[in-house]
Specification:
The chain is of the alpha+beta class. The protein contains 16 helices and 18 strands.
Length: 508
Amino acid sequence: MSATSLSAARRRRDLAELAGGTTVDLLVVGLGVTGAGVALDAASRGLSVAAVDAADLAFGTSRWSSKLVHGGLRYLAGGHIGLAYESATERDVLLRRTAPHLVSALPFVLPLTPFVPAPKAWLTRAGFAAGDALRIAAGTPRAALPRSRRISAVEVRRLAPAVRRSGLRGGLMQWDGQLVDDARLVVALARTAAGFGARIVTHCAVEDLHGRGAAVRDTLTGERHELRARAVVNATGVWAGELDPTVRLRPSRGTHLVLRAAALGHPTAALTVPVPGESNRFVFALPQAGGLVYAGITDEPVDGPVSDVPQPSPAEVGFLLDVFATALEAPLTEADVVGTFAGLRPLLAGRADSTADLSRHHAVRTSASGVTTVVGGKLTTYRRMAADAVDAAVSYAGLSAGPCRTARLPLVGAAPAARLARLSAPARLIARYGAEAPAVHALGTTDPALREPVAPGVEVTGAELLFAVRHEGAVTEDDLLDRRTRLGLVPADRERAVPAARAALADV
């Protein structure tokens, strides 16, 4: 087993050491993208680290994103120049340094239909040009992300075949970054942190948190333990206020529809559609591996208790279908929707009437009890959030730590494109596992059945499930089906794959 491998046995060993009295420099609560980023940042600086989560890696908001690593164009349009530049810079870090195996360039096409008048088209084109300037300022070459341009109606239809023909004046195209899977990014972060010695313990709920540790409950066994630490970071996202009552959040829900790619003519570019009556709001249909398209996103305020798995409302589904209908030859219907998912953004409460207008800046605060909480922000800038949180916790606790290293620290599986192209493994596995793809594929050497799909109509193989159990910390069926693979996004596919998940767990 490699130093980066996570397994049920390693989880038990790490938790036993922590429960036995080991005091770590930093305890991280929450293993979404920010918490996993904090664990990696701190461990790579030489600190001893423990990171716990009540559920699993990427259980919360981090698995419900649009799977984009974007350059902050929307923030630029809103006048948030610093936030836009930070986003473009962090996109470059992921795209070219730390996770080139998980992030790729994706073209976005905005069709110039009769619903997009000339003035709006001009403004959008100017915005895309500003995005090009951001890319240049961030140091991202055109070879990695091409410049924006106007394209013909023929090219629009080639890239997005379902676009309406009548009145089509061509289109505007820009490029941005796309993750093969947001949950895979979190897994890579956690495993890379483990390689630096971090103890990663999932299914371990915090029942009481303070500046010197936490009282936790192992949700798999019911056992309770006291964990000790010199500094503590609360990175629980929309649940941060439950551990630190001084934090005021105003969550918003972002909903996506899951469609078969055939419903949109198998697009090879993301479809961008302006929301009628809104000056700076769009919805997107994002092509995915496996013959799917994710169509979103909404921005609805959420009041009351935060649910573990947010549910899209019928109104949001209807809104998305209506907006996409303005750009399509044949409107989508609810029959085309094979799944839905929604995530909650941990937005800082502010004075804006709409959650769409609330800042996406992050904040780091240390309470009187000594708990450092990091909230706000977005997936693309997780690394900056993590660095700020570690800086604050280290300073408050008076710890000795080196400088942040994560801007140039490749994640597990990362490799240059030329090296990935030479790997002996299926292209689909290389896109999801990078340099580890041959190891996944090799699990089928002695048992060829592991190279077969786990269920009709899906691409996930038994080898992927087994690799997730042996090396990626999956300990339950839900871990396998809903996070390590994303079969859960299509309920019918998930149901067919349950026997294979049980078989993989039984193997160990």
